Write the C-alpha cells for this entry.
Amino acid sequence: MLLIRCPYCEEERPELEFRNAGEAHIARSVNIAGETDDDFEKFFFIRSNPKGIIYERWRHMHGCARFFNAVRDTVTDKFVMTYKAGEPKPSKLPGVAK
Amino acid sequence: MKKYSVFAIAREAMRGHKGWEEQWSSPEPRKEYDVIIVGAGGHGLATAYYLATVHGITNVAVLEKGWLGGGNTGRNTTIIRSNYLYDESAGIYDHALKLWDGLSQELNYNVMYSARGVMMLAHNVHDVQVLKRHVHANRLNGIDNEWLSPEQAKEFCPPLNTSKDARYPVVGAALQRRGGTARHDAVAWGYARGASARGVHIVQNCEVTGVKRAANGAVMGVDTTRGFIGAKKVGVVAAGHSSVIMNMAGVRMPLESYPLQALVSEPVKPVVPCVVMSNTVHAYISQSDKGELVIGAGTDQYVSYSQTGGLHILQHTLDAICEMFPIFTRMKMLRSWGGIVDVTPDRSPILAKTPVPGLYVNCGWGTGGFKATPGSGHVFAHTIAKDDPHPINAPFTIERFRTGRLIDEAAAAAVAH
C-alpha cells in the first residue's frame, strides 16, 4: 500500500484514504461543445500512460476530501512530491535526473 | 517438428527419453522480415502461428524482451468464457471460444482446455437483472448461457455457501457451460512450437527500443537491443507496454496500464468443480489440475508498471472468497503476483490498423485477454496479412474513441474492472 503525503493535511497517510483521479494537467476546454472530435478525443480518452514519471491527481477522500496533484515514478511507485491543486506543473523535480 | 502421440511417448520410454527435440528453435535474427510481431505472449505467438498456417506468411519474427510467455500469458487466472453483452464482443470472444474447442488437436499440444463451466453469482435484485439481461443477449447471439436458481447453483458447485444468512446471499446465477479454463503456459508453448516449425523466428531477450519510420511515414522496422531489424509490417502485441511501444512510433493511445494481481493456495484434492465469479463481492475462483485454488483479485487504482500491487487488494478478494466459500477460511495461500494490464476507456480491446502505414496494434485487453488468445491471434493475423481487418475485429478500431462508436463493455461487462 502506498503512503501518500496530502499537501493540505501536511502528513503521510495510507493509500486507503485516497482515490486516484487520473492524469493531471489535462485542461478542460472552456467551450467543450465547440471542441472538434480530434480535440475532444485527446482531452477525454488519450492518456500519456508513462513508464516513469507521471503527474497525477489524487483526492484525499477519507480525510480533507480535497484534490491535489502528485509526481510519482510508475516503475517503482515512489512519490517524488505532491502539491496543491492549481499550482503549476513543477519544472524541476527533486532527486530526478533530466 | 516431431508429432506428439502415445506412440512417441512409448518409443521415448524405450530409449530413455533421448529423442525429444526442442519445442522451438532460438535462431539469430535476420536483418529483415516480412512481418515483425512485438511481444511473444499468447496473442503475439498466436498471430505468428496463424500468419504462417492461414496466410502462408512464414518470414516472420516474434520479438520478446524477456522470455516467451513470461508476461500476462503466464500470470492470468486462465478463465475462458464468451458471455459478453454486446454483439461485437460476443463475436470476437465466441470466435475464440470456438477455436479453444479443438485447439489441442490443431496444435498437437495439450492446452488442457476444460469446459467445466463458468458460473456468475447474483447477490441482489440488480445482479439478477444484469445477469438475466446477459443470458438473453447471449442467447440471441447463439452463445450458451443459462439461469440457475440458488439450489441449482449449489448443485453445480457444492462448496458454495448458499445460506440465506450469508452477508451477500446467492439469489441466482448465470452459467456458461462451454466456459472453463486452459493451461496458460501450454497455450504459449503450443503456438510457439507450431509457429517455429513453420519457419517463424522467435527471438527472446530482444527488447524493442524504437520504431523506425520512412520519410513517407510508413514503418521500416524496429531498433532492438540486438540491433536494427527491418520489416514493412510491424504488429504491436505488447499488453501493458503497448502504449510505450506505440509512443516510439509517435502514436498516443487511449490506454492506461494498471497492476492486476492473482494468487494461488496450497494444493488440495478436487473441491471446486467449475469457475465461480462474483462481481458484487468481487472475487473469482477456480481450481487448477495441480489442485491449487486460483484466485483473481482486482486492479490497483493507479497507473503502474511495477508488476506488483497493494496487499489490501488481495485481502479484499480473500474476504470475498471466504464469504462465498466459508470452508476455505483456513486455507493457506502459497504465492501471489501481479501483471500489468492495458485498459481502454470502454474496456474493449483495440485490434486494428493504426494511423502509421504498416503498423498494427492488438492491445487493450485489460483484465481479460487470455480467453481471447486464439480468436485474437486469428483475426489479427488476417488484419496484418490483408492490411484490412477481419469482419470480426473491424469494430475494434482506435478511431472509435474519436467517432464515439464505443463498445462499452465497461458499463456492461460481466465483471467489475
